[in-house]
Design brief:
By secondary structure, the protein is α+β, with helices and mostly antiparallel strands. The protein has 2 helices and 4 strands. The chain has a single domain, classed as 2-Layer Sandwich (Alpha-Beta Plaits).
C-alpha cells in the first residue's frame, strides 16, 4: 500500500518522530512523508509513533492508498528532495 503521513508535534518529540518515519517512508518536506509500505511495517511504524507522541499535544495523520496508481499529485515550488524520490 502507499502511505502519506503528516504530523505536527512538540519541539522535543519532533526529531524523534522524524527519525522514526525516515526508517519507513520517504521524507518529502517538513513533517511530511510518503511511500510504499507493507501492512506489517505500517503497524510497526504506528506502534513506534504511539510510544513517542503525546496525544494531548501532537497530531499525526496517515492516509493509506491501495496503490499509487490511484493517486494524483501536484507540486508547487521547489521540493526539499529530488522529484525522483517521491510519488
Amino acid at each position: 500500500m502507499y502511505v502519506i503521513l503528516v504530523y505536527d508535534a512538540g519541539i522535543k518529540r519532533d526529531p524523534k518522530i522524524l527519525k522514526t518515519c525516515r526508517q519507513y517512508l520517504n521524507w518529502v518536506q517538513n513533517s511530511v512523508f510518503e511511500g510504499e509500505i507493507t501492512e506489517g511495517k505500517l503497524r510497526q511504524l504506528t506502534q513506534r509513533l504511539r510510544d513517542i507522541v503525546n496525544p494531548a499535544e501532537d497530531y499525526i495523520l496517515i492516509y493509506t492508498i491501495p496503490t499509487p496508481r490511484y493517486a494524483s499529485r501536484m507540486a508547487l515550488g521547489t521540493p526539499k528532495v529530488s522529484e525522483g524520490d517521491i510519488l
